[in-house]
Design goal:
The structure is a homodimer. With about 350 residues, the first copy, chain A, is of the alpha/beta class. Chain A is about 45% helix and about 15% strand. Chain A binds a DNA duplex (16 and 16 nucleotides) through helix 2 and helix 4.
Amino acid sequence: MKGHQTTIVDLAKQLNFSKSTVSRALTGHPNVNPETRKAVLELAEKLDYQRNMHAISLITSKSSTIGIIVPEFISSYFPQVILGAQEVATQAGYNIIISQSNESYETEVANAKVMLANQVDGLMVSITKETRNFDHLKVFVRKGIPIVFFNRVCDEMIVPKVVVDDYEGAFTAVEHLIQTGKKRIAHLAGPNSLSISVRRLNGYLDALRKHSLPVIEELIIPYDFTPEKVNIYVNHLLNLKKRPDAIFAINDPTAIEAIQVIKKRGLKIPEDIAVVGFSNDYVSSLIEPSLTTVSQPVQKIGQAAIELLLDQIKRDVSEWKAVTRMLNTELIIRNSTVSDPS
Amino acid sequence: MKGHQTTIVDLAKQLNFSKSTVSRALTGHPNVNPETRKAVLELAEKLDYQRNMHAISLITSKSSTIGIIVPEFISSYFPQVILGAQEVATQAGYNIIISQSNESYETEVANAKVMLANQVDGLMVSITKETRNFDHLKVFVRKGIPIVFFNRVCDEMIVPKVVVDDYEGAFTAVEHLIQTGKKRIAHLAGPNSLSISVRRLNGYLDALRKHSLPVIEELIIPYDFTPEKVNIYVNHLLNLKKRPDAIFAINDPTAIEAIQVIKKRGLKIPEDIAVVGFSNDYVSSLIEPSLTTVSQPVQKIGQAAIELLLDQIKRDVSEWKAVTRMLNTELIIRNSTVSDPS
DNA sequence: CTGTTAGCGCTTTCAC
DNA sequence: GTGAAAGCGCTAACAG
């Protein structure tokens, strides 16, 4: 027999109660005879009874589930954010459905549909590098399901967002390079569809300007997060007549790839060329040379996102607030910019 | 207004059809007038209609959802396995709910309950290092919900499993150390509650025996995956009167920690002491020295697990098959054992 | 304190 | 080809 799921009716029959009473006993309703409750709970335990969330969700139109959509799963960034998110969500009695869009817009749209069909009570999203159209996310708002963006946000949607101060982080990182005497600083920039790329680029530009360094167009290379291409771009930079003496990369994976390429070319880091990343991935402290990078409070990002989401869930649509929480970054100086950081 | 979800009744009313017809149009039932279907589909699109999975699950007792429980999220191993799993699952029309138990038995039990309440159609699990009691998982089998284990499996449950040939992998790794001339090979072993630890330990032991090397008890150190402790254990090993000339670590994170400690002590790798890991984490090729390790086909593991699960889901409980798929590993030789691997 | 009734959104016979 | 009615498992008034 295909195992029959125990229901409250089964419990009710065996105990000679109505299913309402059983339901009340199970949900902790106050008006239940303690003995009745005890009997119900015991039998439930004995028969492996489990509440059917689908039935409950159907009634309440709440699923106690929060959806999370991330572009990827491979760098340590997103898993760690999710860790923080899961912590807060679990505490508040919410489950989490995760899906990753693999940097594909199509997949993101499909994932969003699934979240909708599963009646998530809220959605936490970081968009793919391809995403330009946001209809699949606007539906949520229209239906009264709150959304929170983090990291890669959608500027045109007025909803809560959790970001770090990318501008400031980038500015500080580049200023640090300048202070170590670098003058031709290249930037491996992110796709400019993402505001995060733009903010980091601006931080880079302003740092140069502040220190009266020229902005050299050929040193600014936008790329699309395809790791294989870093190879090409870095080699291109190194082959310039006047090659850069430093590289500020949009993120750590990129910086790490860059370091590999530079090492292969036999150049010295940081003497010939310094490298800075962004995010402080798990790997960054382990590689040789260890990577100077802008650290983000990953877990806190996840926590903050869920907190904002829960707050929205509590409110009526008319009282939704589109706060943006901007968290601080911290420059971690390591050997890729300073031979001996004290 | 808290956004009202469009239902088939809404569609039916606006089109002057019964909800049955709308339902049939939506689900692709053959007996529907093509024009009717077209009208329904168009209106559905226009009104952002989304099928309510809870209602459907309630009727069918199927959720088209597969649960995955993993012990952690930080090493690259599990995310990558999940990647492979998600691919196959999505293809087959299944969604995935992921939860991570944080190496805590309690959390694992709670997660399992959630999966049950959500009526997952199948469960894919890698247990925590603490898990000794399996009642929370046996419930699934009793209820006719198939389970598949991977990586960290439960020996006492007769269900499908996906593992790699840990014994062989460990054997090969240790034999490699021996062939490079190492004679006092230590083993940072996993908790022996996990069969995976035992299998790798056996591979280690048999390799020593095959080459007539003595098994030295004090060189075998079981530990519980708490990264901070690696420091202590490795220092302990290095302080022995006769210190080991190689370390075979249960996994890459451990090996990487060990390398840091050894470097800090000013010893040369691999000359003074060689190190081998297990899993070929993303980091392993990037650190200095790069890590010799036993590579696992991570994505394939995820794919295989879901394939086995889908197969069980199709069958009646009476026809369940408890196959174990054992995948092969591959030794990747890098600088932590050979100064210049050609 | 407990039982009765209705209904959440959908699929699925069974009629027509 | 379409409609009417029943029911999945559960909660939530409303009675008593």
